[in-house]
User: Fold these one by one.
Assistant:
Number 1:
Amino acid sequence: MSYAQYNLVEASDYNNLTGGPSSTTANTLNVTWATGTGNAGYGQTAEANVAIGDTVTAAKWANLVNKTGNAATHQGSSISSVTAPVAGGTITFVSAIPTNLQTIYTNRLNAATQGSTTSNTVTRATTWSSGLTFTHTATFANSNAMRYFFNAGGQIKMTVAHPTGTNINLLFYDLCSNIGTVALSAPVSGTATIAGTAYNGVTKVGGGGSTPTIDANKGFYALTTANTTLFTQTASTGPAAYLSTFIRFIAAVDSNSAPTVLTMYTVWDEIPDGYTVSTGSATTLTVTPPETTNLANSWGTITLAGSQTGS
């Protein structure tokens, strides 16, 4: 029997709405709320099934309603209000329940708010005149933790900075300012609305200058063990002969099937070589995690490290 008006509500109906504890079925509670698969799943405690033949209690229905509501609030999704039943009350058919489950599945990569950031900054301590490569890593406890982070609205953001000055130093100061912030999010197509902003997989926020080259669909789920260029911006001010100078962000993960480490390379390239660039060139990787008001922290502690090479 299916969950429908005038039908007797059976355990199988409830189980079809929640999905199994490790459900990968679209539009079920657990595929969005619990482990899920791929870009679905927040890593929260799964809602257990009801044994066939057992009573579907008011408490179980309340769990379904409340967890759906928590997911919707996390996402900023608008769903129909459903009153959770109480012990002794009558459980009736509510058409909004499957519709609400579909909504939270469709909007699963959205997040209304985010948590507090952590960052790692690497700064060049000596002058240089050719190019630099900054290498940052973000390491997760396991591949599911990494999935939950991005699925629940976590982002990796890159920024660059250089002290102001004249000639090549002013060029790099302006270029860094023009790049603004480059955010890596989950999508490989379309957008996710996070903290009120629509993000592609790779998105430039703020800045200005020349039009950058952005591979917008190379979000987290598009990354592989091969280095992927996400973003390149060239200089738009400074010595005319040096306007091909650029800063580029490149990303890779440590496994194509179960990644736990994200590596971000930031390439600063002076073209042509020659001018001496002052000390203080810096690249920062910032982790902006999901919020923990509606979700428990299922992504764990993220370990950051950074280094730089070049001359």
Note: The chain has two domains: 11-106, 118-310.
Number 2:
Amino acid sequence: MSLLDKIKKNSTIKESGILSESKFFNTKDLIQTPVPALNVALSGKLDGGLTPGLTVFAGPSKHFKTAFAMLLAKSYLDKYDDAVILFYDSEFGAPQGYFDSFGIDTDKVIHTPITDIEQLKHDVMSQLNGLERGDRVMIIVDSVGNLASKKEVDDALDGKSVADMTRAKQMKSLFRMITPHLTIKDLPAVVVNHTYQEMGLFPKAIVSGGTGIYYSADNIFIIGRRQQKTGSDVSGYDFVINVEKSRFVREKSKIPVEVSFEGGISKWSGLLDIALESGHVVKPSNGWYQVAADGTDSKKFRTKETYSKEFWLPVLADATFTKWVEDHYLISTGKIMQEEISEEDIAEAYDDIG
């Protein structure tokens, strides 16, 4: 018996295994969305998507955070016929009509109202302990931003007005407990959260809930918003995904997703900004766009006309565009030590110093 086999056999943890053969690293689930720009934000790839673990959408009110969670839930249900959405609801800002607008089968959604962090922690851990790898469940929490701690609720009932010092500790405990289960059991969790502005001359948006959520999350997106206008009328919004933390995408990346009042989420959101930066789409004159690979005599498109398969399929089929996106957004996986240093190199360096 080799030393590797001996150590593996002696382990008291049944999931122990050789890293190169580990199912936790080599067989991660991938939930592709119908919006390529959102796939880029989630994974750094146009054909990527959501992976198991904790993903957080944070931002002010009415910044499309719940809608992003709904879009991911729809994508999960589309991939797996037997999938279930476990929806923890503290804000009741997503009525059944909201699910219906995304085409989500509400017969596959377990709706669980929650009033405090401890209640959420107890129930979600009970659910996770009863699940196994291969069970198709997505957890959504909407939201943790306004969840009180049990102590805060009890103090209010008792007529006390003392400050609650337990909330951040309970929040950290919640995410510390669920994170390993999500990875081991190959489950995605999407959490909606709030932000607040830090004090200072140049205030920065901070994700509420303390450090626990930062340590545990695979992705933290802070959602910004800018208006779309037709003439002087607001016709929709660009919701800008600011990558605050990611295990896959370069932090501080900004990826817009366009939502119009009439048409909803655009499948081709954000691609125009990306393709203009990469040079795969050019702007020959104000308000007109061309696919660069088609040459200067190619068809010109107005902005609205670029929201079409005719415009985007040639770009998405271009391998150089796919490579540019991955080079631009993916975290590098190259060697940290670019070259080996020998004892002779070290000795030579000391001689030079001397």
Note: The chain has 13 helices and 14 strands.
